[in-house]
Design goal:
about 600 residues; alpha+beta; Heat Shock Protein 90; Ribosomal Protein S5, domain 2; formyl-coa transferase, domain 3; 3 domains
Amino acid sequence: MSVRVLPDFLVNQIAAGEVVENPASAVKELVENALDAGATQIVVDVVDGGRTSISVVDNGRGMGKDDLGRAIMRHATSKLPTDDLTNITYMGFRGEALPSIASVSNMTIDTYAAGEPNGWSLDATTGEIRPAAWEGGTRIKVQNLFANVPARLKFLRGDRAETMSVLDVIKRLAMARRDVGFVLNNKWFFPRGQDLMARMASVMGDDILGRMLEIDAKSESDDMTLTGFISEPTLRRASSVDQFLFVNGRPIKDKVVVGALRAAYMDVMHAREFPLCALFLNLNPANVDVNVSPAKTEVHFLEPSHIRAFIIKNLREKLSETMMQATHNFVSHDIVATPHQMNIPSSDALSMSVPTSGAAHMPGGGMRVADSGWNNRDDARPGTTDFVVNKLAQTDTPMAQNVVDAFSDFPLGRAIGQIGDKYILAEHNNDLIIIDQHAAHERITYERVRRHAMKTQPLLTPIVINMRAEDVVAVLTVADELKASGLTLDAFGDDAIAIFEKPADWDLNWANLLHDIADEVRANGHSVQLNEKLHLKLANWACHHSVRAGQKLDLNQMNALLRDIENTTRGGQCNHGRPVYKIIPIADLDVIFERS
């Protein structure tokens, strides 16, 4: 068969198959064009999910007659003033959107540019341009999408589902550009000039208010920044629907960034649950390639491992803030000093409460968790009832009120009792706080074990594992990450890996593990297999060596536990992602008892 040059209409339809997957992708391209034109207000209307009609109206710069005629030509764009593909600062740049959409629909464009004698109207089907009474910006109407491509039309979902896909596109662009107002179907409004938290609430829902953690980080070389918000670990979704990720202002779905987000939440959230976020990564355009896919939602980083490490480090640091750090309640006077400030033993393992025989050994080494005196009533630790009473007894002030006041600087307040031998009740500024004693101590134990448990064991005889050459390459790309988790390895020829050092006391099927790591690296560009196994091992150990539900505690024990969880990283949730405490404002109690 001889080589055939395809006709323009077929070339455009093939391009449309890549660029215009559904009505939502058409809306995305049209709205991005409006943003690139400097619009500050964009109104979108779709009928029947977009298959019957799509209308996008903006107040941007508009086009003159000559530009309007070129706009529907393939690879004609105003977004590349030079031939430099390494410095793309516009949302669009390929020049494929308008001709692709026009090839699978009936499209008209009404526009006006300053300096023109009048507006202009283009019928993309015939190419005819005629004067119009349009007075500002641009309106693009797309009707009968895929009418001439019935094979594509039959794959569209129901009208409601397609409308929700359009809404998702608008949400992501509205999050990226808070300086622009967006309206969809006169039903969903995202006003211009909203701050990030207000825009997030309008996009994700009001349940995020007060439960998001701010990120504001800069790389050591000042060439990269990460800003935005991530959710508290106890605020999660069943899918990634509320994860909004941006690179240089562009909404993206990138496996490096998504993988880093998952890794950061590894030991505070179940693997089948998803955190919420709006994260903005900004870096030199030369270090990221956005010319990867026609839909422009994928990117390639020049140094993906550097990007991943930067994101994980800063998200983990934010998630590791203790309650005392987050509320800035560190004070200097004796009554509310922390255990570390006073050199008082803390609640290390509650060995009197844990059913073990002899000393409990941590996984990964010879450390012991000993009885630190957490249960000793004579210890009178700072923040316990005995300590406060003893201090106040030395003063001439009324004791009852001062006992309450002495706990006011602690975020979890003072313990007032125990219910069901599993929940601690506390009060702080008249709010009621309920603490799960097992979840709290499980997190305390896990964090202390985690800091000390990773010991490695050099091997006299390396463990050699035969693998395919491509699997060897995949494993070696994450060798530095594996070494940080205690596994030192290198190539052993072209088709084998040799392990020279491993985590102490770990008996794993190393061949299966390395093959799983290779599969994950090839699929996602990174691997969390070893870190997840480490987390599960330590989490199970912490769970079995923590105070149990059903154990009675006295007030000193309860208060000591509260002080420790306030100073423990990731103290708001246990190792399995369950909440450690719940705060019930007194206003909510007033509502329950009809006092409001």
